[in-house]
Amino acid sequence: MKYFTDEFLKEQYTLDFGSAGINPPLIPTVNVPPMFSKECLAALLKQHPDAPFVTTWHRCADGDVEIRCMERQSAVVGGLALFVRDSFNGKGRGRSASFRIHCSTISL
Question: What's the predicted TM-score (pTM) here?
Fold first, then answer.
């Protein structure tokens, strides 16, 4: 399992958390199947201690985008909906996707 998690983490990128002000933090993100999401989220949090939260995402069979995020404190979740809308919604796509969002808080 660790091998697959390490391979997925090589493909990570960052997104601007646009609703956070003048110097928005970069949010580490990786496209990963849901079975590897929890391990990848924990690894991303360890790799990026300054990030307010980290995300994984994948496209579901029905065309929806499922986004999972993990954070260190629950105060960040309020801005997550705006972040998702601005970062994923309809940029360069023929139609906008629906979203399913799963959030959790972790103590590292």
Answer: 0.63
Whole domain around residue 18: which residue ranges? 2-105
Domain tally, the chain? 1
Q: Are the C-beta atoms of residues 43 and 33 closer than 8 Å to each other?
A: no
Return the higher-pLDDT residue of 66 and 1.
66
Is residue 46 within 8 Å of 12, Cβ to Cβ?
no
Contacts with 81 (C-beta within 8 Å, 6 or more apart), sequence order = 101
Q: What are phi and psi of 18, to 5 degrees?
A: -60, -25
**104 pLDDT tier (thresholds 50, 70, 90):** low
